[in-house]
Specification:
- By secondary structure, the chain is α+β, with helices and mostly antiparallel strands.
- The protein has one domain (2-218).
- The protein contains four helices and 14 strands.
- α1 runs parallel beside α4 (196-207).
- The longest helix has 19 residues, at 2-20.
Length: 221
């Protein structure tokens, strides 16, 4: 009974965050304020892409587009705009060889919003679905990562399946919930073993959100 209730809690979390996302964190003010913020953000994004201005990481370190370019080899940088935090102003997503870096404008400054591994799939609600492979024992993790308005991890639900020679062993699965608030790990529930049907249902509820349709454009340096 405890295992069943715990699994239902995970699924309800997925569905509730899928429906609400961060859309409630809208800008306060009228359409004029939103348009002004939109124009300011787009101008700052254009200057950043052109190498005319810098962005700031959380630790205060300044970076420019050339720094991001140096982190890739033959893979060209490309960018797209997507409102990931629900404030009606799109964020700047830059796709590199091994990462996707998202920037936003806060207090008049271009700042890092989030940096994710290249394998991360950005979803329509601004959150992400990340797929990882691990060992001891071999397994595949599917992590639904829910972000706060400022790009911090608000909650993460990870579904894991044991694998052998790259094949899922669907009879032996487990799910694990990790709650994170303001960047600090909170106490997580114990690992819960679930059935193939439960695993498929939970993963399907995430995939149902759908991948964001981004219009990527190459960055010419």
């Amino acid at each position: 009974m405890k295992k069943c209730l715990s699994f239902l809690l995970v699924v309800s979390l997925l569905l509730s965050f899928s429906a609400c996302s961060t859309g409630s964190q809208r800008l306060n003010g009228d359409a004029t304020n939103i348009n002004n913020a939109l124009n300011t953000a787009e101008e700052m994004y254009e200057d950043f892409i052109a190498g005319k201005t810098y962005a700031v990481y959380a630790d205060g370190v300044s970076i420019n587009i050339h720094y991001l370019s140096e982190r890739v080899n033959a893979h060209p940088l490309r960018y797209a705009l997507l409102d990931r935090n629900g404030d009606s102003v799109p964020e700047l997503c830059i796709d590199g060889e091994l990462f996707v870096t998202t920037f936003w404008v806060s207090d008049g400054t271009l700042k890092l919003w989030r940096e994710e591994n290249y394998g991360s799939k950005i979803l329509r609600n601004g959150n992400s679905l990340q797929k990882h492979y691990g060992g001891a024992p071999n397994h595949t993790d599917y992590s639904y990562v829910i972000y706060s308005y400022t790009g911090e991890v608000a909650c993460q639900v990870t579904l894991s399946v044991l694998t052998e020679n790259g094949v899922d062993l669907l009879e032996n699965m487990y799910t694990q919930c990790v709650y994170v608030e303001n960047g600090s790990d909170q106490e997580a529930p114990a690992t819960i073993e679930i059935s193939r049907e439960q695993f498929d249902k939970a993963l399907a509820s995430i995939e149902k959100i759908g991948e964001a349709k981004l219009s990527w454009k190459d960055i010419l340096l």
